[in-house]
Amino acid sequence: MADVIDRRVARTRKALHGALMSLILRKGYEVITIQDIIDEADIGRSTFYAHYTGKEDLLRSGFQTLRALLMEAQRNAPVKRDGPHDEALGFSLAMFEHAREYRDVYRALVGGRGSVVAVNEIRQVLSEVVKKELSGVEDDDAVPRDVRVQFIVGTFLTMLTWWLEGKPRLTPTEVDAMFRRLVLDGVGPSIRVQH
């Protein structure tokens, strides 16, 4: 009996998430109402509130899956690829691949029709993953760990937005290589101060 209830709960939550994502793509997050979501999912209001406290709660719960995916990718990242830093930032390629798979949803969430809630949730998930990644790195008095975390997360979000909005033909591997180069090697010696 519990298995039937669990499947029903999972089915309801999947329908609600699907409805929210569909509505975000069509209308944008900010204008969506609970009534829109329950109409789209074809469920009752009381059923919605049995699972979530509101649309922000529904949106946030979807990021638990992303968090689990990135943690798994981080655990399973190869120890060495082709370059000197390839073992670092094990989450990044998985996140770019996930973004390619759900391109329209990511575009809506981080672009103009998304919400501050979505961007903050993505930032929080990435911050947790990066903090874990940096836990084995020595502290640096010149640059505090929290600044390094925010730098990596900010760079990742910049690359993600740039890719989704302007360079969709690039593969996740190509975008990941650019991200890694920026974060791990810096902008390079080609930048010169103009007088």
Notable characteristics:
2 domains; Arc Repressor Mutant, subunit A; 195 residues; mainly alpha; Tetracycline Repressor, domain 2
Written overview of the protein:
With 195 residues, the protein is mainly α. It folds into two domains: 52 residues, Homeodomain-like (Arc Repressor Mutant, subunit A, Orthogonal Bundle); 131 residues, Tetracycline Repressor, domain 2, CATH 1.10.357. Helix content is 70%, strand content 0%. The radius of gyration is 19 Å and the shape is elongated. The mean pLDDT is 80.
- CATH-derived topology of the largest domain: Tetracycline Repressor, domain 2
**What's the shape?**
elongated
Question: Secondary-structure element sequence?
Answer: HHHHHHHHH
Largest sheet: none
Number of domains: 2
Given this structure, which CATH class of the largest domain is correct?
Mainly Alpha
Sheet/helix structural class: mainly alpha
Tally of DSSP helical segments: 9
Helix content: 55-70%
Q: What percentage of the residues does DSSP assign to strands (E)?
A: under 5%
Radius of gyration: 19 Å
Q: TL;DR?
A:
The protein is mostly helical. Helices cover 70% and strands 0% of the residues.
What are the SSEs and their pairings?
Blueprint: H1 2-27, H2 34-41, H3 45-51, H4 55-76, H5 92-101, H6 103-110, H7 116-134, H8 145-166, H9 172-185
